[in-house]
Structures are given as structure tokens and as C-alpha cells.
Amino acid sequence: MIILFTGIDFKGALQDGFAAAVESIVREIPQKSDELNACPRQITILASSAFNPGDVQQIKEIVTDFGLVPIVVPDLSGSLDGHIEDSSNAITRSGTNVQQLRSMGSSAFTLVLGESMRSAAQILEKSFSIPYEVFGELTGLSAVDKFLQALADISGDSIPEKYRHQRSLLQNAMLDNHFLFGCKRVSLALEPDLLWSTVHFLQSMGVHIHAAVTTTRSPLLEKLPIVSVTIGDLEDFEQLAAGSDLLIANSHADAIAQRLNLPLYRLGIPIFDRLDHSHFTKVGYRGTMQLLFDIGNLFLEQEALVKH
Length: 308
What we know:
CATH class of the largest domain: Alpha Beta
Strand content: 15-25%
CATH architecture of the largest domain: 3-Layer(aba) Sandwich
Number of domains: 2
Distance between the termini: 39 Å
């Protein structure tokens, strides 16, 4: 693994600031367990910047299907999902409230979604002796399998039948569409947690990672199963992405895609030129299927253009 650094005139990136904010919350707000009633089925979920509101909503639904009570930090599903409040208010009424944040000291377990949330989980472990597990990705067959098995172990409940059915649907979709992905060259410009998750999903479908650009240092970069990662910006991305079949990046890469005459799959922050970015989900079996179909359709469209 080679990590290349280009000239960057600032410290950190979106993911770093997001993680620092969560660390401050879990350091200052939760209370000691002996001040609150024990919550044996309550779990804390620390969700990194890699997860949008639709992802968080899907994660909460999966967790509650195991009879567990999730406290999500931050809970974007009710605050940035684009819903209309019953009355005008300067701030959102949804999300995780202060009382719930205080109750994190009584949670039985911490689910850590994204490597950048590990430090926040360690704060909770040190302060309240709450065990944790890190999930680097919730996209892809094996990743979702691992997550659901962890929930089954924590709750003592079996995996609901509906997820077994969703798994079989995903298996069939992967088998039917793997030929669209095999040997395709994809270039990505994403924050480290999201880069990690997306690379693993693409490689599970037979994709070749042509280039990878990210924003900041992360322990994940050394472990990525690709030749090199560049810590840089979209200028670096444009230079490295030539020769790809597909670009994956946020909406700011649209001009690059037009200059290179390549399709762009929008992922990350910001996405401002698509209608469903708040509700889209890429997690769980159903979210993985949606991601597979969306990218597969772009490959199909590109093949059709080549034929004509």
C-alpha cells in the first residue's frame, strides 16, 4: 500500500470535524449509570459522517427489529430527512434529545459505525465500562451478515425472517448482475470511512479500483486492499481518474465527469443536484441491492452508448 500526500493547506476534513463533535458529546453529556435506571436493551449507536439520514433510519429499523432501543449519535434520520414540522420552529424538534444523551451511560453496548467513531466509543468504555464493536461497513453481503449476527448476540433474539428473505434477494441480485461489474475500472473520491466501505463492496462485485483519493489521514488507509491512496483534492482526482469506467464522488465532481466524459455516481457530502439524497440508503441487504442496481444501471447505460 502506497499513500500519497499532496499539498493541503488546512488541517483535517469533514470526517475529522464530525468525529470531534461526537467525541465532545460523549465526553461531556452522558451520566454515570448509578444515577439512572439500568437499560439492558438500550444500545448506543455512534454513526460516522459516512451515513446519511436514510442510512440512519434504516439502521434504527434493523436494530429495533431485534427488540433493542437505539440511542443514535448523531441521529440525522429525524433532523435532516426533509420532513415538514407541524409548526414553525427555528431548530429541529427531532433527533436525539439531551435526556437520551445523558442515558448513554446506562447503555448495554455501543455499536460503532465507522472507524472515525472508535475514539468516541473508547471514551464511553473508559467512563462507563460499556463494551463496543466497530463496523467499518454495513454495505455488502458479508458486512450485513456480521452486523445482524452481532445484534442477535446482543439481544439474544434470532435474526428475523424478513432479513433472511432480503439476504436471498441480494444474493440473487449479485449473481444476476456480477457480469456488469467484473473488471470495470472505478475511481473514487470519498472521505476515509466511506471510501473503505465502498471499496470493499465494489471489490466484492469484481470491480478494479483504478484510483482512490481521500481527504485526511485514517488508520483504514494502510489496510485498504488497493495499490495506493492519494490524500488530496478533486484536482488530484481528475488527474488520476482518466481511463476509468465510472467515477464515484460528491456533486462537486460533476464538472470533472463532464470533462472526462465519464458517468458519475454521487456519494458522500454534499449531494445537491439529486432529489433523493436524504432518503437514499446504502446499508443493510436492501440498501446494498439499491446501490448495486444504481451503479449497475450506469454501467448498462455506458455500454449502450458505446454500442451506438
